[in-house]
Specification:
Length: 239
């Protein structure tokens, strides 16, 4: 079959899954931004984020979480203040050890590109593009990615078909000629298959139960290690 592109999810896929204490990520922000009220502010941020993800999930991606900045702004935080920038830096430092790329990612992307395939990323994320770009540059993947779509910049999110269409449009490929690789059965596998992509599942993420909607999908293949994607794609292309 003709395959022109391989599109990857980010968290739990190009970057291995980590269990994160989501209150702590906000506490490290709040203890810099507003030390006397750190615990209360962290709770407000935690609740606001949870509401965004719930809305996105319950709408099957028809509404995205929006961008990180909008959470701060809605809580009256001045995102241009020195206190905010310092607190945000602490938040990103908290995340840094949890965003390291899978050690096999670079080799996989290089091999796929050597095979003539375009590489895309489609991530359900609150983070602005600049944070993701910094992570990909740190891990020396940025130059191997032809296009990336982040739902923080979009009105929709996976599994909504328009989210998948946005990355195929960026790559200028037909959905039927794409393979999608992701760790979530609903957002990634179901969504990709709905618009005609083949989907490979990375089965190691411990996705919290409240983040898993009802519904099921059967992946076209399973990659127990990221590098196995290469053999699966080559095998599909050879038939
Ligand atoms: Mg993921």
């Amino acid at each position: 079959m003709a395959i022109d592109a391989v599109i990857f999810d980010w968290g739990g896929t190009l970057t291995p899954w980590h269990d994160i204490d989501l209150f702590s990520q906000w506490y490290v922000y709040a203890e810099i931004y507003d030390p006397p009220n750190a615990r209360a502010l962290a709770q407000q941020l935690f609740d606001a984020e949870a509401d965004r993800w719930r809305l996105q999930r319950d709408s099957s991606g028809a509404m995205s979480t929006g961008a990180l900045d909008s959470i701060f702004i809605n809580l009256g935080i001045d995102t241009r203040s020195a206190a905010h920038l310092s607190a945000l830096s602490n938040y990103l430092d908290f995340w840094a050890p949890h965003t390291l790329a899978d050690p096999q990612a670079s080799e996989l992307l290089q091999q796929l590109r050597a095979d003539g395939l375009a590489i895309g990323v489609l991530s359900n994320t609150l983070w602005p593009r600049v944070h993701h770009q910094e992570v990909f540059e740190r891990d020396e993947l940025a130059h191997l990615i032809d296009a990336a779509c982040y739902t923080s910049e979009m009105d929709v999110a996976k599994p909504h078909r328009e989210a998948f269409m946005s990355i195929t449009a960026q790559l200028e490929v037909a959905p039927e000629q794409c393979v999608f690789v992701g760790d979530r059965i609903w957002d990634d596998i179901f969504g990709a298959q709905e618009i005609g992509m083949r989907a490979i599942w990375i089965p190691h993420s411990r996705v919290p139960s409240e983040q898993i909607p009802d519904g099921d999908a059967i992946p076209d293949a399973i990659a127990n290690e990221l590098i196995e994607v290469l053999g699966i794609v080559r095998q599909w292309r050879s038939v």
